[in-house]
Amino acid sequence: MPSLDDLRKRITSVKSTQKITKAMKMVAAAKLRKAQENAEKGRPYSEKMNNIILNLSAGVSDPQSAPKLLVGTGKEDAHLCVVLTSDRGLCGGFNSNIIKKAKNYFEKIQKEGKSLKIITVGSKGYDQLKRQYGKNIIENISFKESKNINYFDATKVGNLIIEKFQNEEFDFCTIFFNKFKNVISQIPQAQQIIPLENKNKNKDEKLESNYEFEPDEDEILSNLLPKNISTQIFKAMLENSASEQGSRMTAMDNATRNAGDLVDKLTIQYNRSRQAAITKELIEIISGAESL
Amino acid sequence: MDQFNLEIISPEKSFLTKSDTEEVVIPAIEGYMGILKDHIPLISFLKPGIIDVRSKNETLNYYVDDGIVEFKDNTLSILTSNIFDLKKMDKNKVDKIVKDAEEGLKKENIKDHERYILDQKIEVLNSIKSN
Protein backbone atom coordinates (compact mmCIF):
# COMPACT_ATOMS: atom_id res chain seq x y z
CA MET A 1 0.00 0.00 0.00
CA PRO A 2 1.61 3.29 -1.08
CA SER A 3 1.64 6.03 1.48
CA LEU A 4 -0.58 9.11 1.21
CA ASP A 5 2.35 11.24 0.18
CA ASP A 6 3.32 8.87 -2.63
CA LEU A 7 -0.23 8.85 -3.94
CA ARG A 8 -0.43 12.63 -3.90
CA LYS A 9 2.82 12.88 -5.87
CA ARG A 10 1.63 10.35 -8.39
CA ILE A 11 -1.63 12.20 -8.96
CA THR A 12 0.18 15.48 -9.60
CA SER A 13 2.56 13.83 -12.03
CA VAL A 14 -0.23 12.14 -13.98
CA LYS A 15 -2.09 15.43 -14.08
CA SER A 16 0.86 17.28 -15.55
CA THR A 17 1.35 14.54 -18.15
CA GLN A 18 -2.29 14.96 -19.03
CA LYS A 19 -1.75 18.66 -19.53
CA ILE A 20 1.09 17.98 -21.95
CA THR A 21 -0.82 15.41 -23.98
CA LYS A 22 -3.81 17.72 -24.11
CA ALA A 23 -1.69 20.56 -25.41
CA MET A 24 -0.09 18.28 -27.99
CA LYS A 25 -3.49 17.15 -29.14
CA MET A 26 -4.60 20.71 -29.70
CA VAL A 27 -1.42 21.60 -31.55
CA ALA A 28 -1.84 18.51 -33.72
CA ALA A 29 -5.45 19.45 -34.44
CA ALA A 30 -4.43 22.91 -35.60
CA LYS A 31 -1.60 21.52 -37.72
CA LEU A 32 -3.86 18.85 -39.13
CA ARG A 33 -6.21 21.42 -40.55
CA LYS A 34 -3.35 23.14 -42.28
CA ALA A 35 -1.84 19.91 -43.53
CA GLN A 36 -5.18 18.80 -44.90
CA GLU A 37 -5.60 22.11 -46.64
CA ASN A 38 -2.16 21.80 -48.18
CA ALA A 39 -2.87 18.28 -49.32
CA GLU A 40 -6.05 19.46 -51.01
CA LYS A 41 -4.35 22.41 -52.62
CA GLY A 42 -1.65 20.18 -53.99
CA ARG A 43 -4.08 17.78 -55.58
CA PRO A 44 -4.87 19.63 -58.84
CA TYR A 45 -1.21 19.71 -59.83
CA SER A 46 -0.60 16.00 -59.52
CA GLU A 47 -3.94 15.15 -61.10
CA LYS A 48 -3.28 17.34 -64.09
CA MET A 49 0.22 15.96 -64.39
CA ASN A 50 -1.15 12.44 -64.35
CA ASN A 51 -3.70 13.30 -67.02
CA ILE A 52 -1.14 14.76 -69.34
CA ILE A 53 1.16 11.79 -68.93
CA LEU A 54 -1.74 9.45 -69.55
CA ASN A 55 -2.59 11.27 -72.73
CA LEU A 56 1.00 11.19 -73.81
CA SER A 57 1.72 7.59 -73.00
CA ALA A 58 -1.39 6.54 -74.89
CA GLY A 59 0.30 7.89 -77.97
CA VAL A 60 3.48 5.92 -77.45
CA SER A 61 3.32 3.18 -80.02
CA ASP A 62 6.73 1.63 -79.87
CA PRO A 63 7.73 0.44 -76.39
CA GLN A 64 11.30 -0.05 -77.58
CA SER A 65 11.95 3.63 -78.00
CA ALA A 66 9.80 4.77 -75.08
CA PRO A 67 11.57 6.36 -72.11
CA LYS A 68 12.75 3.84 -69.56
CA LEU A 69 11.07 5.71 -66.74
CA LEU A 70 7.76 4.79 -68.31
CA VAL A 71 8.24 1.20 -69.41
CA GLY A 72 11.08 0.06 -67.17
CA THR A 73 14.50 -1.30 -67.96
CA GLY A 74 13.22 -4.72 -68.92
CA LYS A 75 15.04 -6.28 -65.99
CA GLU A 76 13.73 -7.10 -62.56
CA ASP A 77 16.86 -7.45 -60.52
CA ALA A 78 17.21 -4.49 -58.22
CA HIS A 79 14.48 -2.81 -56.24
CA LEU A 80 14.67 0.61 -54.69
CA CYS A 81 12.28 1.37 -51.86
CA VAL A 82 11.70 4.88 -50.60
CA VAL A 83 10.22 4.84 -47.11
CA LEU A 84 8.64 8.12 -46.06
CA THR A 85 8.20 8.56 -42.33
CA SER A 86 8.04 11.43 -39.88
CA ASP A 87 10.84 13.13 -37.97
CA ARG A 88 8.98 13.22 -34.70
CA GLY A 89 7.55 10.55 -32.50
CA LEU A 90 4.48 10.42 -30.27
CA CYS A 91 2.14 9.83 -33.15
CA GLY A 92 0.69 6.42 -32.38
CA GLY A 93 1.17 3.70 -34.92
CA PHE A 94 1.93 6.10 -37.74
CA ASN A 95 5.56 5.16 -38.30
CA SER A 96 5.30 1.52 -37.30
CA ASN A 97 2.48 0.97 -39.78
CA ILE A 98 4.59 2.19 -42.67
CA ILE A 99 7.57 0.19 -41.49
CA LYS A 100 5.47 -2.95 -41.13
CA LYS A 101 4.17 -2.59 -44.65
CA ALA A 102 7.66 -1.91 -45.97
CA LYS A 103 9.21 -4.83 -44.10
CA ASN A 104 6.70 -7.24 -45.59
CA TYR A 105 7.67 -6.03 -49.01
CA PHE A 106 11.38 -6.22 -48.23
CA GLU A 107 11.04 -9.84 -47.13
CA LYS A 108 9.21 -10.73 -50.29
CA ILE A 109 11.92 -9.19 -52.44
CA GLN A 110 14.74 -10.82 -50.55
CA LYS A 111 13.03 -14.20 -50.73
CA GLU A 112 12.96 -13.83 -54.49
CA GLY A 113 16.67 -13.26 -54.38
CA LYS A 114 16.59 -9.76 -55.76
CA SER A 115 18.79 -7.02 -54.48
CA LEU A 116 17.20 -4.44 -52.23
CA LYS A 117 18.12 -0.80 -51.77
CA ILE A 118 16.42 1.52 -49.35
CA ILE A 119 16.18 5.27 -49.08
CA THR A 120 14.62 6.52 -45.88
CA VAL A 121 13.05 9.95 -45.66
CA GLY A 122 12.47 11.07 -42.09
CA SER A 123 14.57 10.04 -39.13
CA LYS A 124 12.02 7.77 -37.43
CA GLY A 125 11.99 5.34 -40.31
CA TYR A 126 15.76 5.21 -40.34
CA ASP A 127 15.85 4.47 -36.62
CA GLN A 128 13.47 1.57 -36.99
CA LEU A 129 15.03 0.06 -40.09
CA LYS A 130 18.73 0.46 -39.46
CA ARG A 131 19.07 -2.58 -37.20
CA GLN A 132 17.60 -5.13 -39.56
CA TYR A 133 18.28 -3.53 -42.92
CA GLY A 134 21.23 -1.28 -42.10
CA LYS A 135 23.35 -2.53 -44.97
CA ASN A 136 20.53 -2.04 -47.48
CA ILE A 137 19.97 1.60 -46.64
CA ILE A 138 21.87 3.63 -49.19
CA GLU A 139 20.61 7.06 -48.27
CA ASN A 140 18.97 8.67 -45.27
CA ILE A 141 17.30 12.00 -45.83
CA SER A 142 15.65 14.16 -43.23
CA PHE A 143 13.93 17.50 -43.57
CA LYS A 144 13.91 18.42 -39.92
CA GLU A 145 14.95 21.95 -40.73
CA SER A 146 12.17 22.82 -43.14
CA LYS A 147 9.12 24.10 -41.35
CA ASN A 148 6.60 23.23 -44.01
CA ILE A 149 6.59 20.59 -46.64
CA ASN A 150 7.76 22.21 -49.80
CA TYR A 151 8.19 21.14 -53.36
CA PHE A 152 11.87 21.93 -53.28
CA ASP A 153 12.51 19.16 -50.75
CA ALA A 154 10.52 16.73 -52.86
CA THR A 155 12.57 17.55 -55.95
CA LYS A 156 15.72 16.81 -53.97
CA VAL A 157 14.49 13.29 -53.31
CA GLY A 158 13.16 12.99 -56.85
CA ASN A 159 16.43 14.04 -58.44
CA LEU A 160 18.33 11.60 -56.28
CA ILE A 161 16.10 8.76 -57.44
CA ILE A 162 16.43 9.74 -61.08
CA GLU A 163 20.19 10.03 -60.81
CA LYS A 164 20.39 6.55 -59.38
CA PHE A 165 18.05 5.25 -62.06
CA GLN A 166 20.21 6.73 -64.79
CA ASN A 167 23.25 5.07 -63.26
CA GLU A 168 21.26 1.83 -63.54
CA GLU A 169 21.41 1.15 -59.84
CA PHE A 170 17.88 -0.25 -59.76
CA ASP A 171 15.03 -1.35 -62.04
CA PHE A 172 11.98 -0.80 -59.85
CA CYS A 173 11.13 1.96 -57.46
CA THR A 174 8.38 1.86 -54.85
CA ILE A 175 7.46 4.50 -52.32
CA PHE A 176 5.90 3.79 -48.93
CA PHE A 177 3.76 6.33 -47.15
CA ASN A 178 0.52 6.72 -45.21
CA LYS A 179 -2.52 7.75 -47.15
CA PHE A 180 -4.78 10.05 -45.23
CA LYS A 181 -8.30 8.67 -45.12
CA ASN A 182 -9.65 10.50 -42.10
CA VAL A 183 -8.47 11.56 -38.67
CA ILE A 184 -8.85 8.11 -37.21
CA SER A 185 -7.57 5.93 -39.99
CA GLN A 186 -4.51 6.27 -42.13
CA ILE A 187 -3.69 3.55 -44.60
CA PRO A 188 -0.11 2.56 -45.29
CA GLN A 189 0.46 2.48 -49.02
CA ALA A 190 3.01 1.10 -51.41
CA GLN A 191 3.10 2.85 -54.73
CA GLN A 192 5.30 1.90 -57.63
CA ILE A 193 6.65 4.95 -59.43
CA ILE A 194 9.25 3.42 -61.74
CA PRO A 195 8.19 2.07 -64.14
CA LEU A 196 4.99 4.02 -64.05
CA GLU A 197 1.93 1.99 -63.25
CA ASN A 198 -0.84 2.75 -65.63
CA LYS A 199 -3.92 2.03 -63.63
CA ASN A 200 -6.41 3.59 -65.97
CA LYS A 201 -5.28 1.66 -68.97
CA ASN A 202 -8.14 -0.79 -68.91
CA LYS A 203 -10.77 1.76 -68.21
CA ASP A 204 -11.41 2.49 -71.85
CA GLU A 205 -11.37 6.16 -71.24
CA LYS A 206 -11.66 8.38 -74.19
CA LEU A 207 -8.19 9.75 -74.56
CA GLU A 208 -7.71 12.61 -76.88
CA SER A 209 -4.97 11.80 -79.23
CA ASN A 210 -5.31 14.79 -81.50
CA TYR A 211 -3.04 16.99 -79.46
CA GLU A 212 -0.47 19.18 -81.04
CA PHE A 213 2.90 18.58 -79.46
CA GLU A 214 5.71 21.02 -79.38
CA PRO A 215 8.40 19.65 -79.51
CA ASP A 216 7.57 16.01 -80.31
CA GLU A 217 5.92 13.58 -77.92
CA ASP A 218 9.05 11.67 -76.96
CA GLU A 219 10.87 14.76 -75.91
CA ILE A 220 7.98 16.05 -73.84
CA LEU A 221 7.57 12.69 -72.22
CA SER A 222 11.20 12.35 -71.31
CA ASN A 223 11.04 15.82 -69.82
CA LEU A 224 7.82 15.23 -67.99
CA LEU A 225 8.52 11.87 -66.38
CA PRO A 226 11.31 13.04 -64.07
CA LYS A 227 9.04 15.86 -62.97
CA ASN A 228 6.30 13.38 -62.32
CA ILE A 229 8.54 11.45 -59.93
CA SER A 230 9.06 14.57 -57.84
CA THR A 231 5.37 15.33 -58.01
CA GLN A 232 4.45 11.85 -56.78
CA ILE A 233 6.90 12.16 -53.93
CA PHE A 234 5.57 15.58 -53.05
CA LYS A 235 2.05 14.18 -53.03
CA ALA A 236 3.15 11.36 -50.78
CA MET A 237 4.83 13.83 -48.45
CA LEU A 238 1.67 15.91 -48.21
CA GLU A 239 -0.49 12.86 -47.51
CA ASN A 240 2.05 11.73 -44.97
CA SER A 241 2.10 14.99 -43.08
CA ALA A 242 -1.69 15.08 -42.85
CA SER A 243 -1.65 11.46 -41.67
CA GLU A 244 1.04 12.19 -39.12
CA GLN A 245 -0.93 15.00 -37.54
CA GLY A 246 -4.15 12.98 -37.62
CA SER A 247 -2.44 10.02 -36.05
CA ARG A 248 -0.82 12.19 -33.41
CA MET A 249 -4.12 13.84 -32.61
CA THR A 250 -5.85 10.49 -32.03
CA ALA A 251 -2.94 9.15 -30.02
CA MET A 252 -2.81 12.21 -27.81
CA ASP A 253 -6.57 12.20 -27.38
CA ASN A 254 -6.36 8.62 -26.13
CA ALA A 255 -3.47 9.48 -23.86
CA THR A 256 -5.40 12.38 -22.35
CA ARG A 257 -8.39 10.17 -21.70
CA ASN A 258 -6.24 7.45 -20.16
CA ALA A 259 -4.56 9.97 -17.92
CA GLY A 260 -8.00 11.19 -16.80
CA ASP A 261 -9.06 7.64 -15.92
CA LEU A 262 -5.85 7.10 -14.03
CA VAL A 263 -6.30 10.32 -12.06
CA ASP A 264 -9.82 9.24 -11.08
CA LYS A 265 -8.63 5.83 -9.96
CA LEU A 266 -5.75 7.26 -7.96
CA THR A 267 -7.94 9.90 -6.34
CA ILE A 268 -10.36 7.22 -5.10
CA GLN A 269 -7.46 5.21 -3.77
CA TYR A 270 -6.03 8.32 -2.09
CA ASN A 271 -9.35 9.21 -0.44
CA ARG A 272 -9.87 5.64 0.76
CA SER A 273 -6.50 5.40 2.39
CA ARG A 274 -6.90 8.86 3.91
CA GLN A 275 -10.26 7.80 5.33
CA ALA A 276 -8.71 4.56 6.61
CA ALA A 277 -5.97 6.49 8.36
CA ILE A 278 -8.48 8.83 10.05
CA THR A 279 -10.64 5.93 11.17
CA LYS A 280 -7.61 4.18 12.54
CA GLU A 281 -6.60 7.25 14.51
CA LEU A 282 -10.15 7.65 15.88
CA ILE A 283 -10.27 4.04 17.00
CA GLU A 284 -6.95 4.49 18.72
CA ILE A 285 -8.16 7.60 20.57
CA ILE A 286 -11.48 6.00 21.58
CA SER A 287 -9.95 2.77 22.75
CA GLY A 288 -7.34 4.79 24.62
CA ALA A 289 -10.06 6.82 26.37
CA GLU A 290 -12.05 3.66 27.22
CA SER A 291 -9.14 2.01 28.94
CA LEU A 292 -8.76 4.92 31.35
CA MET B 1 -12.38 39.62 -78.02
CA ASP B 2 -13.35 36.05 -77.18
CA GLN B 3 -12.46 34.84 -73.74
CA PHE B 4 -11.19 31.53 -72.42
CA ASN B 5 -10.16 29.99 -69.10
CA LEU B 6 -6.72 30.05 -67.63
CA GLU B 7 -5.40 28.13 -64.66
CA ILE B 8 -1.89 28.33 -63.34
CA ILE B 9 -1.14 25.57 -60.87
CA SER B 10 1.92 25.18 -58.71
CA PRO B 11 2.59 22.03 -56.65
CA GLU B 12 1.69 23.81 -53.45
CA LYS B 13 -1.48 25.49 -54.55
CA SER B 14 -3.62 26.72 -57.36
CA PHE B 15 -1.79 29.89 -58.23
CA LEU B 16 -4.28 31.68 -60.45
CA THR B 17 -7.61 30.96 -62.12
CA LYS B 18 -9.21 33.34 -64.54
CA SER B 19 -12.15 32.99 -66.86
CA ASP B 20 -11.88 36.24 -68.77
CA THR B 21 -8.52 35.78 -70.44
CA GLU B 22 -8.26 37.03 -73.98
CA GLU B 23 -4.72 36.21 -74.87
CA VAL B 24 -1.81 34.47 -73.19
CA VAL B 25 1.74 34.57 -74.43
CA ILE B 26 3.89 31.73 -73.10
CA PRO B 27 7.61 31.08 -73.39
CA ALA B 28 7.39 27.62 -74.98
CA ILE B 29 10.59 25.69 -75.41
CA GLU B 30 10.79 26.48 -79.11
CA GLY B 31 9.90 30.14 -78.82
CA TYR B 32 7.22 32.45 -77.51
CA MET B 33 3.72 31.36 -78.40
CA GLY B 34 0.50 33.33 -78.33
CA ILE B 35 -2.68 31.49 -77.43
CA LEU B 36 -6.15 32.68 -78.26
CA LYS B 37 -9.58 31.13 -77.87
CA ASP B 38 -10.23 27.93 -79.87
CA HIS B 39 -6.61 27.03 -80.21
CA ILE B 40 -6.22 23.37 -81.10
CA PRO B 41 -5.39 20.99 -78.21
CA LEU B 42 -1.76 21.44 -77.33
CA ILE B 43 0.87 20.09 -74.98
CA SER B 44 4.20 21.77 -74.65
CA PHE B 45 6.68 22.77 -72.03
CA LEU B 46 8.23 26.03 -71.03
CA LYS B 47 11.65 27.53 -70.85
CA PRO B 48 12.51 30.35 -68.45
CA GLY B 49 10.66 33.43 -69.56
CA ILE B 50 7.71 35.69 -69.02
CA ILE B 51 4.08 34.72 -69.20
CA ASP B 52 1.89 37.51 -70.45
CA VAL B 53 -1.77 37.24 -69.50
CA ARG B 54 -4.05 39.74 -71.21
CA SER B 55 -7.66 40.25 -70.29
CA LYS B 56 -9.98 43.14 -70.97
CA ASN B 57 -9.04 45.27 -68.02
CA GLU B 58 -5.59 44.22 -67.05
CA THR B 59 -2.35 42.65 -68.14
CA LEU B 60 -0.52 40.35 -65.79
CA ASN B 61 3.11 39.35 -66.09
CA TYR B 62 4.75 36.40 -64.43
CA TYR B 63 8.23 35.01 -64.52
CA VAL B 64 8.47 31.19 -64.77
CA ASP B 65 11.43 28.84 -64.50
CA ASP B 66 9.91 25.85 -66.18
CA GLY B 67 6.56 24.23 -66.63
CA ILE B 68 4.13 22.26 -68.71
CA VAL B 69 1.31 23.71 -70.74
CA GLU B 70 -1.85 22.01 -71.82
CA PHE B 71 -4.61 23.59 -73.84
CA LYS B 72 -7.86 21.71 -74.15
CA ASP B 73 -11.55 22.63 -74.39
CA ASN B 74 -10.71 26.29 -74.19
CA THR B 75 -8.88 25.89 -70.91
CA LEU B 76 -5.23 26.65 -70.69
CA SER B 77 -3.49 24.89 -67.82
CA ILE B 78 0.01 25.84 -66.87
CA LEU B 79 1.81 23.59 -64.39
CA THR B 80 4.89 25.19 -62.98
CA SER B 81 6.98 24.78 -59.87
CA ASN B 82 8.53 28.23 -59.88
CA ILE B 83 6.45 31.29 -60.65
CA PHE B 84 6.70 34.90 -59.52
CA ASP B 85 4.60 37.97 -60.11
CA LEU B 86 6.82 40.44 -61.91
CA LYS B 87 5.48 43.39 -59.96
CA LYS B 88 6.35 41.74 -56.68
CA MET B 89 9.81 40.67 -57.71
CA ASP B 90 12.50 42.76 -56.14
CA LYS B 91 16.03 43.21 -57.31
CA ASN B 92 17.64 41.03 -54.65
CA LYS B 93 15.56 38.05 -55.66
CA VAL B 94 16.41 38.50 -59.31
CA ASP B 95 20.08 38.85 -58.48
CA LYS B 96 20.01 35.69 -56.45
CA ILE B 97 18.44 33.61 -59.21
CA VAL B 98 20.91 35.02 -61.74
CA LYS B 99 23.80 34.17 -59.46
CA ASP B 100 22.56 30.61 -58.98
CA ALA B 101 22.18 30.19 -62.71
CA GLU B 102 25.65 31.55 -63.38
CA GLU B 103 27.10 29.14 -60.88
CA GLY B 104 25.25 26.32 -62.57
CA LEU B 105 26.86 27.30 -65.85
CA LYS B 106 30.32 26.97 -64.38
CA LYS B 107 29.88 23.26 -63.70
CA GLU B 108 31.94 21.13 -66.01
CA ASN B 109 29.70 18.22 -66.80
CA ILE B 110 26.78 20.37 -67.87
CA LYS B 111 24.72 19.18 -70.81
CA ASP B 112 23.97 21.34 -73.82
CA HIS B 113 20.29 21.34 -73.00
CA GLU B 114 20.86 22.53 -69.45
CA ARG B 115 23.28 25.18 -70.65
CA TYR B 116 20.66 26.47 -73.05
CA ILE B 117 18.07 26.69 -70.28
CA LEU B 118 20.43 28.52 -67.93
CA ASP B 119 21.51 30.93 -70.65
CA GLN B 120 17.89 31.70 -71.32
CA LYS B 121 17.26 32.26 -67.66
CA ILE B 122 20.06 34.76 -67.29
CA GLU B 123 19.05 36.61 -70.42
CA VAL B 124 15.43 36.94 -69.34
CA LEU B 125 16.30 38.01 -65.83
CA ASN B 126 18.79 40.58 -67.01
CA SER B 127 16.15 42.07 -69.26
CA ILE B 128 13.80 42.24 -66.28
CA LYS B 129 16.42 44.03 -64.26
CA SER B 130 17.10 46.64 -66.90
CA ASN B 131 13.43 47.56 -67.15
Write up what this structure looks like.
The complex is a heterodimer of chains A (292) and B (131). By secondary structure, chain A is an alpha/beta fold. Chain A folds into two domains: 4-22 and 252-290, Orthogonal Bundle (Helix Hairpins), CATH 1.10.287; 38-250, ATP synthase, F1 complex, gamma subunit (Pyruvate Kinase, Chain: A, domain 1, 3-Layer(aba) Sandwich). In chain A, 61% of the residues lie in helices and 14% in strands. Chain A has helices at 4-58, 68-71, 94-111, 123-133, 151-166, 217-290; strands at residues 78-84, 115-121, 137-141, 172-180, 186-194, 212-214. The longest helix of chain A has 74 residues, at 217-290. Chain B has 131 residues and is of the alpha+beta class. Chain B folds into two domains: 4-85, F0F1 ATP synthase delta/epsilon subunit, N-terminal (ATP Synthase, domain 1, Sandwich); 90-130, no CATH class. Chain B is built from two helices and nine strands, in the order βββββββββαα. In chain B, strands 1, 2, 3, 4, 5, 6, 7, 8 and 9 form a nine-stranded mixed sheet that branches. In chain B, helix 1 runs antiparallel to helix 2 (112-130). Chain B is globular and about 45 Å long. The interface between A and B is medium-sized, with 29 and 23 residues. Strand 6 (212-214) of chain A pairs parallel with strand 4 (42-46) of chain B, so a sheet runs across the interface.
Shape of chain B: globular
Could you list the spans of chain B in which at least 5 consecutive residues all have pLDDT below 50? none
CATH class of the largest domain in chain A: Alpha Beta
| Alpha plus pi helix count of chain B | 2
Distance between the termini of chain B: 29 Å
Radius of gyration of chain B: 15 Å
Largest interface, counted by CB within 8 Å of the partner chain's CB: A-B, 29 and 23 residues
What proportion of the residues of chain A is helical, as a percent range?
55-70%
Tell me the helix content of chain B: 25-40%
- Class by helix and strand content of chain A? alpha/beta
Give the CA-based shape of chain A.
elongated
What is the top-level CATH class of the largest domain in chain B? Mainly Beta
- Beginning-to-end CA distance, first to last residue of chain A: 33 Å
The CATH topology assignment of the largest domain in chain B is ATP Synthase, domain 1
Structural class of chain B: alpha+beta
**CATH H-level homologous superfamily name of the largest domain in chain A:** ATP synthase, F1 complex, gamma subunit
Count the E strands of chain A: 6
Oligomerization status of the protein chains: heterodimer
Main β sheet profile of chain B: 9 strands, mixed
